[in-house]
Amino acid sequence: MLATLLECAGFAVTTACDGRDALAQSHRQRPCVIVLDLMMPRMTGEEFREVQRNDPEICDIPIVVVSAKHDASETARRMNAAAFSPKPLDADLLIDAVTHCCAGAP
Q1: What torsion, rounded to 10 degrees, do the Cα atoms 87, 36, 49, 54 define?
Q2: Structural domain contains residue 106
């Protein structure tokens, strides 16, 4: 659903099955933004962000956190996320956040 929403808005989207896959793909494809759920298999969103922030090749890629967790906005703030979009998703809010992160990206 997320991928389809962003593709319909004109973004090229790559999906990952879990956090480890997302890290590997971030190295291969260097996205302008990472849309990150806090609850993922094999690695939580917080664990992903910690690894990403310590990796000089991908540490500067902004993240947009999406989550249904009750404290997700606070978690996103602690993670220094570029934006937070609660679930259920507000399509306009998410598209605006991704657009803002990708503005000026090659």
Answers
A1: -160
A2: no
pLDDT, one tens digit per residue, over 7-46 is 999 999 999 999 999 999 999 999 999 999 999 888 999 9
Poorest-confidence range of 3-7, 53-57, 70-74, 102-106? 102-106
3-state secondary structure of 67: strand
Q: Looking at the 3D structure of the chain, how many domains does it have?
A: 1
Residue 13 belongs to some domain of the structure: yes
Q: Which CATH number is 65's domain given?
A: 3.40.50.2300
Per-residue confidence (pLDDT) for residue 23, from 0 to 100: 95
DSSP code for 89: P
Q: Which domain holds residue 43?
A: 2-101
